[in-house]
Amino acid sequence: MNKLIYELRGTVNYLLYRWVVRPIIFLWEAEKAHNKLKQFGLLFVSNKFGRGLLKVLFYYQHSSLNTTVDGIKYDNPIGLSAGFDKEGELTDAYPSIGFGFAELGSFTGDRCPGNPGVGRRLFRLIKSKSILVWYGLNNQGAVAIAKRLKSKKFSIPIGINAAKTNDSNYFDLQTSIDDYLKTLDEFKNIGSYYTINISCPNTQDGEPFVERENLDALLSALDKVKQAHKPVYVKMAADLTTDEINTIVDTCLEHKVNGLVLTNLTKPSMSGEYFKEELTFDKGALSGLPVQRISINMIRHVYQRTHGKITIIGVGGVFNAQDAYEKITAGANLIEMITSMIFEGPQVVGEINRGLVALLKKDGFSSIEEAVGSRNPLK
Ligand SMILES: Cc1cc2nc3c(=O)[nH]c(=O)nc-3n(C[C@H](O)[C@H](O)[C@H](O)COP(=O)(O)O)c2cc1C
User: Does ligand 1 have an atom closer than 6 angstroms to the CB of 165?
Assistant: First the structure.
């Protein structure tokens, strides 16, 4: 397709989503809309025609977007972030939409109902371009999900995001480590990489793996898993002090973790970048624009701290190609997103990729790899 047709397709898709589809979806309460969208998506991608239509509507590819990270080949660097597909149900949809990869989960060792108040755990802050999330890691549990996915063939790299079951406010180190290991073991032959989520801001026992001793014990237990062929990444919280960031990063380096996912959601008390009147619930944490600046600052810092030697997956408030490019040139090898897809529609994936091709060209780069960290020279 030539440039003009892509531009026309992007504009029509945007207008349709913004003025027809989104107003309908936003009539539902947010958690209900999330579930309905998944049901609709499942129906849509269960046949070749549906998948083909998605491809015609949204797919975009260009050779300058191809990238290899930790030995895994990606057609493009834009991936779905953890939390949208908490049961790993829509893996047939993501390649047709044009995602380069998708991170599923978070999956926990045991089945987890999440926080109480089903139907009141997700809130849209439209003006603030953010979602307040109070899910608390609801999912069917690693055993059931792995059983369903074990014979599935994936056409793009799939990340398995593992978290600790959120079922008690009592923290026991060994039980928690075993919980992660259970998920990793269940998924040992499923997916391309693991993400260890130590940063869910909505759990009953807080974020105990921010403490060096706890993280050290967890990563020591994971050392065995790391030798088992898949890259392991650690997902960090947004709301950390510089000392906490350095401690986590240095501990990850000591354990030869392959990379870091930066970042998870931010607590409203930590980010000032939202309209206060839109915050109608006193729990949870924010996605989207309020986390954008925090994420970019952390990417810049961690890229320097690690001398660009480990993988960075940048996530938080990526709404367009410029946002993605800012993270890449700050040091991110790959990008993830959720909120922009909900606010702007699925065409945003192809539009970001298309914009990235133009931005790479403008700066004289022939690949994503060349652009990584280019505006954050190592000191
Ligand atoms: C509805 C929702 C659910 C989420 N659940 C998870 C989760 O289970 N595990 C996780 O690691 N991150 C979770 N996240 C955080 C995202 O993966 C991501 O780090 C964050 O939303 C920032 O990206 P965004 O601004 O593109 O949404 C969730 C985010 C949203 C919006």
Answer: no
